[in-house]
Amino acid sequence: MNVENPTHQRIVEILEDGQLHHKDEFKDVCNYNGLRGRISELNKWGYVIRRVDDKGHNDWRGEYFKCITVPIKEAHNEIISVSLKPDKSGKVSIIGLGDIHYGNPCFTDISEDKLNGYIDWVLNTEGAYIILMGDMIESANERATFKIKVTPQEQYEWVLEKFKPLAKAGKIIAIISGNHENWIYSDKGFDIVKTLSLALDVPYLGDSGYVGVKVGKQFYSIYVTHPRTGVTKKSTKIKMIEDLGTIHDVDIVMCGHHHAIITEEQITRHPNFATGEVDNRKQCLIGTGAFLEYGDYAEQARYRPEVMGAPKIKLYAERKDMHMGK
Prior knowledge:
5-stranded mixed β-sheet; 2 domains; 6-stranded mixed β-sheet; single chain; alpha/beta; Purple Acid Phosphatase, chain A, domain 2; 8 helices
């Protein structure tokens, strides 16, 4: 990876041999606090740099640093199209299910009961489908500030079994990665969501992608994403999705990661030069929620509590129209 910052470049040059390097080796580069901050930035850019003890074991208080060579994950921006069968009233319902975080201490029996309710509803409802929105598992080991309840291997197997009935019924449209699953790739070079998509036999869009949905005579475009963002207030979460709507010329924006159920819409103006009229087009903006009880990290970080669950959107076959609900 190209690093233009001279200080960052010097840190990489020291660490590129993959050996242990004591913090004192970086004295001529920057002070210790500056080193930690710059290494944090390099981790975000694709390098995997760990603080370790003198034996090379992970230790967040360790005085040594080691760079692990992991291939850079290529960004996907897949485009798929599907035809969905509507119910008898001529509509399709789509739910974005994500930010389950199975393995997190705040994923409780209440969380699972809530999730099961959505899964059962989709399985037993004609014209109902889901998109998996990322962060299905907690995944974190070394990175966690708390003890996860089960191993990443058990987390994967749980999610696979949980969603297998939906996949067999043809109810899963697509799946995207979240930042928690991407931690596994950053640490080990293993794309666990791609493996899940192969096991479920559903399309994998990467971190984001476009889904074209044909419902009867109508065609709808959806952009799905699990963005990297630290926004915490409801207003800034809505603003972020509005901004995505100005970037992506689609009917629906579905956004995970921020754990809020959001159902907003905005109108865009499109000149129709064939008719000489200006058409108003509705764009639906959706935050796909989460399945965690409040507490632990969210409470310590002063995040606001959010209602557990996920919104759904209805698409109509006989007319171009969309309705959102919680």
